[in-house]
Amino acid sequence: MTETAHPRTAPLRARAEIDLAALRANVRALRAHAPTAALMAVVKSDAYGHGAVQCARAAREAGATWLGTATPEEALALRAAGLPGRVMCWLWTPGGPWAEAIEADIDVSVSGMWALREAVAAAEAVGTRARVQLKADTGLGRAGCQPADWPELVAGALAAEARGLITVTGLWSHFACADEPGHPSVQAQLTLFREMVAYAEEQGVRPEVRHIANSPATLTLPESHFDLVRTGIAVYGISPSPELGTPADFGLRPVMTLSASLALVKHVPAGHGVSYGHHYVTPGATTLGLVPVGYADGVPRHASGTGPVLIGGKWRTVAGRVAMDQFVVDLGGDEPEPGAVAVLFGPGDGGEPTAEDWARAAGTIAYEIVTRIGTRVPRVHVKVKEEQGG
Ligand SMILES: Cc1ncc(COP(=O)(O)O)c(C=O)c1O
After folding, report:
1. Which atom of ligand 1 is nearest to the CA of 367?
2. Region 306-323 average pLDDT
3. Among 30, 77, 288, 338, which is least packed by CB within 10 angstroms?
4. Could you tell me which of 70, 156, 80, 79 has the C-alpha nearest to residue 109?
5. Is 44 a known active-site residue?
6. Are 338 and 376 in contact (CB under 8 A)?
7. Could you tell me the residue range of the domain that residue 282 belongs to?
8. Strand, coil or helix: what is 204?
9. Backbone Cα Rg of the chain
10. Set 44, 135, 236, 383: catalytic member
């Protein structure tokens, strides 16, 4: 544990420190993994909980030429914060802010005819050519156009392009199982993607970018890189799956460190029940530490009795249930001062647990751990400037 990484006392109840130098280094590492493709930093869901605007800026500085969001509102928020350059969003519902997105020069994705019609109508209304990307469902079974419906969507897009209302800027898709190399769906999706791209191009579509790779495909499947890779979790320094490798195996470093100041340290006798339901009972006289974050802050209740925390150089485990605002650890007789730092997770090289450790403790994935950290936890962005550490 180093002083700079985890100061001995944190002035805040809790904080999520976001290391933007690590984020920039991750983007550079990812560009090296996909040297022939452009890179999109996926910053949806407030950059997986890390702060969208700050992360988007840092990713841009490190060479991400595209930013990606799920909702148009997220994309518009990036523009409102002054972020220029290519921005794409893909999760549309009928009546969405097409006109605003088109006027803000955002690439919009359509998976079917209703969305194409709305995009075209909005482009006509505002008098600006829309940048439209056609999404193919090559096997994920979520968003995207089914192969049987692709000819109609391609024809509709070409007709709108001929009328000067849209430009088809991209053809794209998304993997279902790229985090399981060798899964037969991966090659099947790649084959179908090539076929659907070839069909659209034969019909006259001239896409600027063809793309299907998420983080796991970017890291493990070069043939999936095409013109652009869309990396989310790896930008934040987390491995897409522990089975694939550690962040360090891929030259990545976790960006978020979540810590809290101990709110109380007290002696209790043996046999003392701890937290709701008394699922933990002290085995002997001991000290308890109160960590003032709970499930309202994104600490998973499923990690009751299992989640790890570093306090005073030792790993402790959540004792009993995680409550809405707090949980308790058994300090085994140690007496750190109130205000001492409890590190829930970080990069791991200071001895602290990682988001992956919490994912294992809660029976989920590290994506969910970082993304669900609540709005009550301030994000403290550090190394904001390039020259402060790269
Ligand atoms: C369409 C799309 N592309 C790319 C990504 C990024 O995925 P990952 O975080 O695995 O890189 C996501 C996130 O789920 C997504 O929904």
Report:
1. 9
2. 98
3. 338
4. 70
5. yes
6. no
7. 256-386
8. coil
9. 23
10. 44
